[in-house]
Structures are given as structure tokens and as C-alpha cells.
Amino acid sequence: MKMLINVAETVVADALRGMAAAHPELTVDVENRVILRRDAPVAGKVALVSGGGSGHEPLHGGFVGPGMLSAACPGEVFTSPVPDQMARAAAAVDSGAGVLFVVKNYTGDVLNFDMAAELAEDEGISVAKVLVDDDVAVTDSLYTAGRRGTGATLFVEKIAGAAAEEGRPLEQVEAVARRVDENSRSFGVALAACTTPAKGSPTFDLPPGELELGIGIHGEPGRERRPMMTSGEIADFAVDALLTDLPPRNPVLVLVNGMGATPLLELYGFNAEVQRVLAARGVAVARTLVGNYVTSLDMAGASVTLCQVDEELLSLWDAPVSTPGLRWGM
Amino acid sequence: MLDADFFRRWMTACAASVEREADRLTALDSPIGDADHGTNLQRGFRAVTAALEREAPTTPGAVLTLAGRQLISSVGGASGPLYGTLLRRTGKALGDAAEVSEEQLAEALRAGVDAVRALGGAAPGDKTMVDALVPAVEALSTSFAAAKDAADEGAIATTPMLARKGRASYLGERSVGHQDPGATSSALIVAALEEADGE
């Protein structure tokens, strides 16, 4: 597999150096692997810190900026960051109003953020934590690691980020973040597996003419494999899985998210099918976002995330945001 | 009796074994995980080796706590906190003694494995590192060789299991038929005890 890299060992550091050059409005600490708002800490404002394995760009580093994250901590590819990174980020962005950790629900992320929270609290920083677990493909059970955090992470970071920007206190920002997670569901499909730089070959073997249903964002295979389906059939399947799990009473935000290697032409076509199914099921759509936001390296495929919103959450979604990956209203 | 040198040799043997087996660990992690287990442990044990040379701890407990801290600060993922906790808690349980008996090591390692179980929430049979570590600790009171065999058997026994913890758990039934990479690396770490002893 050909890749636009120097060597696998330096892909994360190389990308951070490039990010620093492209985004002077951010502070990128390449050595310690922390991306910060240049104006942090912002007086009186709750800070949002997230992070996770690299390979999901623009998540999380591309969502640092006014109206969204205060800092992001990238780990190695598909490997959660280490506690030292988040503790350092928390110390750098805390204004005294406290820090909210936004954590995707994977064992590694949870353990490392927990350890980081202990380190930060030892330094006198108030830390709250919200787990994002929106992936309906994982059968939720006491006996598994629970649902994965995927597309809803964008909704949580944007909406809670707006709440923090308004100057709300930590427990309110945390409550908003939790409400977004509880009202969000995602489902993803892969048409081709991704290739990690370290391995150099596809992470799983998907023959031509077949697709994986219920994939995550780390190149792990899905729960079920089927003969290839059309965009319309995939939309029927995915939206049905989402609505079965959470029949919305309110209008929804829709994220049609590319996994990295699927062209926007296909994503927009897929969005048309998703909107057709939602309309047929009587679900009102408040806003729609289409693009590559929570990716899985060069995986081909897409995920659909729905988040049902009341007026408060919708107005926080519409609030201005200025980050490399998401920008409107300012 | 086992002194700080023995524990240094143990960590060096772990590092060498992880270097040798990195590709196999990553290959095992590919069908049921995300194909990085070998790479991540390589990074971790290189940091351990460097820190042991730099700081030259003088007691068994200090060697293991330093090694555990390095794993937590360099590996990431779930394996960093889990293996880091295993070594740190084992090291703490050994206290400040300049030398420890094999029985004391077995007791301390049991405390380390208990901490891993508490942190990760895994029980035997969940297809995780616990499936190699628990039988190894039981067999350690007999000999290092017996612990190695028990850990190997424990790792092999994960193949038919359905994963209930960690990333393989997302696959449900499709996790069956693959040996768990975490149990496999745990068996390497246990096997390194015998190597350290034989030198």
C-alpha cells in the first residue's frame, strides 16, 4: 500500500508540524502532542479537552478553537493518548473554571483519561468527564466494553463547546454534553478496510462485492458482512437501526460522515437517501452536515449520526464556531 | 533470593521478547483488534529499558514501579494503563526490600493481577490478558517454568472464547477462533521470568 508519508514512526509528529504551519491561530506542541487554542486559558470559561488515537482527522485536533475544544491530545494511530498529555493540556487551558474531558468510550481512552483526571485533580484542577457512546452496532451489555464513541463526538464537542463559550459553569456544560450523547445514535458501514501506517496492509480482508455493516472507526471489522448493497439500501438499513434504538420525538441533527476514502459525490448521494428514509419515517430534520469529520484513515464507507435536539441544543449547535474542521458564524 | 539485578534482567528479557514477537502480536491484533499491539508494546518496553539505564533503581520494587510508570507514560491504548498498573502494583507490593523471595514475588504479582482485573473489569474467560496472568500466578509458587507453561496454555485457551472486554468484544461471535493478543503478550512477560532466572 502506497502512502504519502516518510516513515510510519513519525506520521503523527509530521502531521502536527504541518498543522502548526497551517494554523497559526492554534498552539501546537509537537513534542508533548497537545493542540491548544492560542488564547487559552480564557478567563472565566470552562475548558473542553478531548483526545484519542490519531487517524480520525479532523477529529479532535481540527475541532480546537473558539466555540468548540480548548485542547486536543492526539495519540499514536488508533491508540489512545497517554495520561501525561491530557494532564498537561488541562493545566494549560484551565482558567480556574474547570475542565471537561470529552472521552470516546473505548477501554484505552477511558483508562488514560481517568488517570489524567487524577493527575489534574492533584494539581487542584476541577475535572468533569463525559463518555460518548453512540454506536448502535454494539449490542449494549453489562458484559462488554459497551457502545463505541463515533460520530456523536462531533455533536458533543460542538454543542458543549458553545455552552462553555457562553460562560456556563462546569456542571452545566457537563450536563449539556451528556444530554447530547444520550440523544445521539450512530451506525457505520465499510466498503473497504483501512490501512494503518505501521501495518502497511488492510486491517481486515473485505472481498470485492461485499460490505461490512456496523463498523467502528479503528479499522476493526463490523458485526456482519453482506453482499454489496446500493446507497438506498444502505440508508434503509442504517436509519432503521438508528430509529429502532431511539425513536426521536424532536427534530434531529443529521451527520452523514465519510470514513476517509469515500468521495463527497457519493456522500451527498447517500445523504439524499438518508433524508428520503427520514422523511418516510416522519422524522423532522433540523440541520444536516455532510463530509469527512470522524474518519478512519483511508477506510471507504460512511456513518450516519442522528441527534435529537430541543430549542436549546439547536441554538447551541447554531452558535458561532471557528476551528480548522468546522467553521461558521464568525 | 531475587535482587534488583534479577528484576532488571526480567524487564530486559521482556523488551527483547517483545522486539522478537512484535510482528506476531500485531498480526494477532489484526483480525480482532486494530493491528497495533506489537508496535505499542515495543514503544513501551524501549522506554522501560532506557529509563532503567538512566535512573538505575536499586531495589526490586523500584525497578518495577519505574517500569510501570514508563509503560503508562509511553504506550497509550488500554495496554499502557493495564501493563503499567500490573508492574507498578507488583512493585509497590514488593516494598523497599533489597531482595525478595520467589514466594514474595508470587504474592506481589497476585496483587498486580488483582489491580489489572479491577482496572479493566475483566474476569477469566473474557478473552483478555487476565486469561494468561491468572493461571501463571497460580503456577508461580511451583516454578518459573510452570508459570510460563500455564501462561502459554492460558493464552492458547483464549482462541475459542467469545470476547467480552476490550476492542475484540465489538465483534461478538466473530471474535471466536482467534487467539487474544493481550493474553499472548502476557505469556511473553511471564516467560521472560524464566529467562531472567537462567542468566
Automatic annotation (TrEMBL), chain A:
<dbReference type="InterPro" id="IPR050861">
    <property type="entry name" value="Dihydroxyacetone_Kinase"/>
</dbReference>
<feature type="domain" description="DhaK">
    <location>
        <begin position="7"/>
        <end position="328"/>
    </location>
</feature>
<dbReference type="GO" id="GO:0005829">
    <property type="term" value="C:cytosol"/>
</dbReference>
<dbReference type="InterPro" id="IPR004006">
    <property type="entry name" value="DhaK_dom"/>
</dbReference>
<keyword id="KW-0319">Glycerol metabolism</keyword>
<keyword id="KW-0808">Transferase</keyword>
<dbReference type="GO" id="GO:0019563">
    <property type="term" value="P:glycerol catabolic process"/>
</dbReference>
<dbReference type="InterPro" id="IPR012736">
    <property type="entry name" value="DhaK_1"/>
</dbReference>
<comment type="subunit">
    <text>Homodimer. The dihydroxyacetone kinase complex is composed of a homodimer of DhaM, a homodimer of DhaK and the subunit DhaL.</text>
</comment>
<protein>
    <recommendedName>
        <fullName>phosphoenolpyruvate--glycerone phosphotransferase</fullName>
        <ecNumber>2.7.1.121</ecNumber>
    </recommendedName>
</protein>
<comment type="pathway">
    <text>Polyol metabolism; glycerol degradation.</text>
</comment>
<dbReference type="Pfam" id="PF02733">
    <property type="entry name" value="Dak1"/>
</dbReference>
<dbReference type="GO" id="GO:0004371">
    <property type="term" value="F:glycerone kinase activity"/>
</dbReference>
<keyword id="KW-0418">Kinase</keyword>
<dbReference type="GO" id="GO:0047324">
    <property type="term" value="F:phosphoenolpyruvate-glycerone phosphotransferase activity"/>
</dbReference>
Automatic annotation (TrEMBL), chain B:
<protein>
    <submittedName>
        <fullName>Dihydroxyacetone kinase subunit L</fullName>
    </submittedName>
</protein>
<dbReference type="InterPro" id="IPR036117">
    <property type="entry name" value="DhaL_dom_sf"/>
</dbReference>
<dbReference type="GO" id="GO:0005829">
    <property type="term" value="C:cytosol"/>
</dbReference>
<feature type="domain" description="DhaL">
    <location>
        <begin position="5"/>
        <end position="195"/>
    </location>
</feature>
<dbReference type="InterPro" id="IPR012737">
    <property type="entry name" value="DhaK_L_YcgS"/>
</dbReference>
<dbReference type="InterPro" id="IPR004007">
    <property type="entry name" value="DhaL_dom"/>
</dbReference>
<keyword id="KW-0418">Kinase</keyword>
<dbReference type="GO" id="GO:0004371">
    <property type="term" value="F:glycerone kinase activity"/>
</dbReference>
<dbReference type="InterPro" id="IPR050861">
    <property type="entry name" value="Dihydroxyacetone_Kinase"/>
</dbReference>
<dbReference type="GO" id="GO:0019563">
    <property type="term" value="P:glycerol catabolic process"/>
</dbReference>
<keyword id="KW-0808">Transferase</keyword>
<dbReference type="Pfam" id="PF02734">
    <property type="entry name" value="Dak2"/>
</dbReference>
